[in-house]
């Protein structure tokens, strides 16, 4: 995994001039250190703007910033593939906060509790639409079942042009 990231960033660096890499890690030393290692080897600056941010505040900022992300994998006590897969982060947010209070779940999924996929955000020129998918149950554990969405058909859609005035 680290060497794959190294190879990818090396190819990018050979094609365009980059000086830094933004890291999305919030709490995971494992993730942050792996990216920092690759950046050091490639003489790139690792930028970890989200590092150690309050997770409840960060998730709220994502929602307020109109990031349209859905849950595509669950793997934790309190998360159920049948109930939570496909929900938008704005829809699952109250449940994540409740599970944090009850079980200590990482609200932003930093412990691998869940994964998301971004369909749209203000930075995207087009939005993604999922036309077809299948739900895969990896482990039907009674306490913490693991399931994910496998997209079988996606498409890009032009966004409406919005006037700033």
UniProtKB/TrEMBL annotation:
EC number assigned by the record: 6.3.1.14
Gene3D superfamilies xref list: HUPs (3.40.50.620), putative n-type atp pyrophosphatase, domain 2 (3.90.1490.10)
Protein name: Diphthine--ammonia ligase
Keyword terms: ATP-binding, Ligase, Nucleotide-binding
GO biological process: protein histidyl modification to diphthamide
Pathway the protein contributes to: Protein modification; peptidyl-diphthamide biosynthesis
This protein's record includes keyword Cell cycle: no
């Amino acid at each position: 995994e680290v060497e794959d990231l190294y190879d990818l960033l090396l190819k990018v660096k050979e094609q365009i001039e980059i000086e830094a890499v933004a890291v999305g890690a919030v709490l995971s030393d494992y993730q942050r250190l792996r990216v920092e290692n690759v950046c050091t080897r490639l003489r790139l600056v690792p930028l970890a703007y989200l590092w150690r941010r309050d997770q409840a505040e960060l998730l709220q900022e994502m929602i307020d910033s109109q990031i349209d992300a859905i849950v595509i994998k669950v793997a934790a006590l309190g998360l159920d593939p049948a109930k939570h897969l496909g929900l938008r982060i704005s829809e699952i947010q109250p449940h994540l906060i409740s599970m944090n209070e009850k079980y200590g779940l990482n609200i932003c999924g930093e412990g691998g509790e869940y994964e998301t996929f971004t369909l749209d955000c203000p930075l995207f020129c087009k939005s993604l639409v999922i036309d077809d998918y299948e739900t895969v149950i990896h482990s039907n554990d009674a306490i913490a079942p693991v399931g994910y969405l496998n997209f079988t058909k996606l498409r890009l859609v032009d966004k409406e042009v919005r006037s700033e005035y």
